[in-house]
Design goal:
The protein has 201 residues and is of the alpha/beta class. Helices cover 43% and strands 17% of the residues. It has 7 helices and 6 strands. Helix 3 links the parallel strand 3 and strand 4 (88-94). The protein is globular and about 50 Å long. Bound molecules: flavin mononucleotide. Flavin mononucleotide (FMN) binds next to helix 1.
Length: 201
């Protein structure tokens, strides 16, 4: 098991689901992990860290069927200041929708980055219902898959894994709608207001 760097590409990294997934990953992988949130200001520090690691795990959410800008901007910095020895890259992505396949386009974007910049590609874990699963009775499914994903990286026998809440789509949509409507109420935001493009008060 080599040293492994975990980089969180969520725009809300300190309070993110990605952070929770990264914590579970670390406890499954063992001692040799180092974790950082990607921020606007720490690109040079993280690029330097990458130079001294054998494996990097990017943990991030799906944003508009693609990569969040926090991660995109970091990849641009990395392209401009690449490490001499390229670590292998693995990806743990979570999305709000039920289907883990929603994440596939973003995974392809990461593969393309790795191919074009000569990083060996490692394992992938795609999580659907990523906003909900950890606080549901199905948490164990996510933990189990993260363990398998971590094992595959530790052993160098890379693979692609996925998990989600085993619910019918209709039920998931109803539960998600009532969750967000109640969440909005707490902040005085109505369902109608949430359906507009006006995201800031
Ligand atoms: C601006 C924005 C765009 C999003 N786009 C998608 C999307 O295209 N598909 C999807 O399934 N979830 C989408 N989501 C939901 C997030 O992927 C989901 O809430 C995830 O759990 C956030 O992870 P994080 O807490 O690590 O940032 C979006 C969320 C935001 C805020």
């Amino acid at each position: 098991m080599g040293n492994l760097l975990i980089l969180n590409g969520s725009p809300r990294a300190p309070r993110s689901n990605s952070r929770r997934y990264a914590q579970i990953f670390s406890s499954c992988y063992g001692e040799n992990t180092e974790y950082f949130d990607i921020s606007k200001r720490n690109h040079p520090e993280l690029c330097a860290k990458l130079a001294g690691t054998s494996h990097v795990l990017f943990v991030f959410p799906l944003y508009a069927d693609g990569l969040p800008v926090t991660l995109l901007n970091f990849l641009k910095s990395l392209e401009a200041a690449p490490p001499q020895n390229k670590p292998a890259v693995s990806v743990l992505i979570n999305c709000g929708f039920l289907e883990p396949q929603q994440n596939e386009m973003a995974v392809e974007m990461m593969r393309l980055f790795c191919r074009q910049n000569h990083y060996p590609f490692g394992s992938v874990l795609k999580i659907g219902s990523g906003e909900a699963i950890l606080d549901s009775p199905f948490r164990f499914l996510a933990v189990r898959k993260i363990r398998r994903f971590a094992d595959s990286i530790a052993k160098g026998s890379y693979g692609t894994f996925q998990t989600t809440m085993p619910l019918p789509k209709g039920l998931f949509v109803k539960a998600a709608a009532s969750y967000w409507i109640n969440y909005g109420k707490k902040f005085g935001v109505t369902k109608e207001a949430m359906q507009t493009m006006q995201i800031e008060p």
